[in-house]
Amino acid sequence: MTIEPRLVITMAVICLVGIGIYGLLVTRNLIKVIVALQILVKGAILALVLAAKYQGQIQLGQSMALTLIVADTIVAVVGLALGLQVRRRIGSLDLRDLTKLKG
Amino acid sequence: MPAILTLSTILIPWLGAVVVWALGEKRQHLAGPAAVVFSGLAGLAALLLYPAASAESVIDLPMGDAFGNLTLRPDGLACLLVAIATVIGCLAVIFSLDYMRGEHQLTRYYAFILLFIGAMTGLVLSGSLLYLFFFWEITALSSYALISFNNDDPKAVRGGIKALIMTQVGGAGLLAGALALYAATGSFQIDLVLAAPAAIPGGVLAFAAFGFLVAAAAKSAQFPFQTWLPDAMEAPTPISALIHAATMVNAGVYLLARFYPAFADVPGWKTAVIVVGVVTAISAALMAIVAGDLKRVLAYSTVSQLGYMVYAIGLGAQTAVQFHLLSHAIFKALLFLSAGAVIHSVGTRDLERMGGLGKKMPFIRAAFVVGALALAGIPILNGFWSKELILEAGLEYGPAWGYWLMLIGAGLTALYSLRVTWLVFYGMPRTELHIHPAGKAMKTSLLVLTVGSFTSWLLVAVVTKISHLTLPYHKVDEISIGTLVKEILANPGTITALLTILGGAAIWVIFMRFQNLPKFLRWTIRPIQSSFGMEAINTGITRVVGFTAEKLRKTQTGLLSWNLVYIVIALILTIVLLGVGA
User: Fold this and answer.
1) Would an 8 Å CB–CB cutoff place A12 in contact with chain B?
2) CB pair distance less than 8 Å for A24 and B557
């Protein structure tokens, strides 16, 4: 049997999103949360390109994906910076210590 | 020219609000005079606009595809309310010059009054339901902000929030009705609905009709929403006079009057309106008799008089509604402002601590007595003519029980008007009160309104003629002064009504002899004082909401993992639902 490229990409999307959600569900470390979030978003970007291919508007999908990659990088940077600040102020990266909005 | 006048009744007050706000804390002594200028100009524009009122000189302002055009339609009904809102607004601002002297944050006070005046004129002028809703909510917002003006007083804050929440129920009803009409007609234009109500499916029309009834009941403090208005009396008194007696509470009556031609044929709607009006008028009049706070008595009496107007709408008596709306706005503003002068002078609102004040403030006593007599319906004051018109319509078109109950209501009105006047101005002083004299600005406003209470009924010919010409769907009859006088004096109902009014007054005189209620009647007071259990229902609802919220709070852990679990569950549910749907 031949392996369809679309099938491979679909599987990749499901794996990436699955890993991302699993990571977000089980981890309590802020850095790992950001890593899991990155994996999840990569899956979403891939899904976007795939959807564009199915719709026959591949250029639109690719340009959207490029935009998303840039935005996503900024999210990662800001997230890591926040993590650094949290570590400095609270002294821990455990999410359970971050449930209160007020000091 | 009418277009410029129409726009300026909205834009001048709003421009004024921005200017007054921009004056800032350091120049706040200028805020009052500036507000007088702007509200005076708006009042002038409204008075010039009124004779030029017409249904044709419509202004269409394009606002983008999503919202449709902002249509302003200066017809008779709208222009009447515009004139009331701006002129009484101007008088309330003038009164405030003395009343608010020495207070802080005056820019906030005057800016919100001007914002309110502009929103109120927009509300009545708007020919599009969507913009009517926007203006409706702006009036609710400024009402809230002004009730809670003394924001370090917890009672004022609580009263403001209560008013905001209860009128929001009405806002939801209005929005739901408007969206239903939009779904049926594809447009927010009010005229489309009024022109061809038969083209709208019956179910949609009934939904909108009862939605608007809820909206009107909440805004005009009608049963079962009447409890917010007495608590709104924590506001500075000019605010009570303007917003909670003369203008904003009329918005509900206006909404019903405007849509009456469309909803009149909805089965059960007219009866529902009559029942709401009668229940409100009677229960509020009873509460006014036992209330012990000067402003609360007046608040209950406002609720009761609005009940009369709602009742008249249920009868289809458009002329009587507009006429009583005008009279009530004038004499109730007069009563509130003179009550404000009393409160400002003696520093208390408790009726038990007043008494015998008339000798020390004869001018204010005269003004208050004129207002109270107009409220009681004594000839030849304006309240007499308009109330008789409503009762006459009730006798002619309405169910008999409604007429008799409203007649008793007129007697109760006379009873509480006499009681409150007596307790404040006559008899022996009950406590020693230090009295500040009333200022010139206060007296000016009171003088204008006193003259208005005597003479506004002479406008009947003008008001009905303009409404007759410009309201094609409402069927307002043209009445000249001569016909009005002849019709009312020749009507046998007038004698009955006057006898009932005298009877109500006589009850107070008899009661004065005994000094206190006879023992076998004392048990009746408790349920009236607790507003027939409505307050308990309100408290119950807030308790239930608080309790449920406290329980539901446990689901908000603030932990990312748990929030993600909810998202995943929702995702799975969506996929399953989509799968089932496909």
Assistant:
1) no
2) no
